[in-house]
Amino acid sequence: MSDTLVLLPGLLNDAALWTHQIAGLSDLVDDIQVPDLTRHENVREIATTLLETLPDRFALAGLSMGGYVALEIMRRAPRRVERLALIDTSARADSDEQRRRRTGLIQLADMGKFKGVTPRLLPMLVHPSRLEDPEVTGPIFQMAARVGRDGFIRQQKAILSRTDSLDLLPTIECPTLIACGRQDQLTPLALSEEMAAMVPGAILTVIDECGHLPALEYPERTTEIMRRWLGA
């Protein structure tokens, strides 16, 4: 059991992503922190800043972009992480197509069309059955509005800055959970299966009828999975 749990949100997300998990895990840890990942344009700078402020030992969970930051933290300070959860993320650097898509979204935001970004991304973020569910889509739009155009651009540039972390995976020694929505379009299940095969002793959990944001799409299930991980 860890005293501190650090929850790292994804692109255009803030602490509201983890609302159910914060409530549902608070009896297992003394301190739950959700850092702001919108202030830097480089994943290495984000990891450096976090490591300067976090306690000596902590449990670490990251979703999507949060997973990229988590892997950078593992590269820099693996002994400080007591257990690791990588949720709907990837250890690979962006493909050329992904880089073009990110650059296009940055240009769209630069042109003053930031409000058009989230509707464009929404079909890739959640399972088709949740596209009309206001309990899922409402928080997504609200988080995006709080992150804002400048935060979004910084986040996308940070994601573009990350390095491939496949070489890091076999060196991870702490208990590791890898979870993914079965219908995730942005970081497909095959990427989680790849990570699970490379991290010694990793446990892979697949969430059915779920897209890229299980913490919102299936909050109870996600919290249950994370409770088992924290208690392992």
Walk me through the structure:
Helix 3 (65-76) links the parallel strand 3 (58-63) and strand 4 (81-87). By secondary structure, this protein is of the alpha/beta class. The protein has a single domain (4-94, 158-231), classed as Alpha/Beta hydrolase fold, catalytic domain (Rossmann fold, 3-Layer(aba) Sandwich), CATH 3.40.50. It has nine helices and six strands. The longest helix has 28 residues, at 134-161. The protein has a six-stranded parallel beta sheet, with helices on both faces. Helix 1 packs across helix 9. The mean pLDDT is 94. The protein is globular.
How much is the radius of gyration in Å? 16 Å
pLDDT averaged over residues: 94
Number of separate domains: 1
Q: What is the CA-CA span between the terminal residues?
A: 8 Å
How many DSSP helices?
9
How many distinct beta strands? 6
The helical percent reads: 40-55%
Strand order of the largest sheet: 2-1-3-4-5-6
Taking pLDDT < 50 over at least 5 consecutive residues as the criterion, the unreliable ranges are none
CATH superfamily assignment? Alpha/Beta hydrolase fold, catalytic domain
- Quickly give the CATH architecture: 3-Layer(aba) Sandwich
Order of SSEs: EHEHEHEHHHEHEHH
Strand content: 5-15%
Describe the biggest sheet? 6 strands, parallel
Q: What is the CATH topology descriptor?
A: Rossmann fold
Structural class: alpha/beta
CATH class: Alpha Beta
Shape: globular
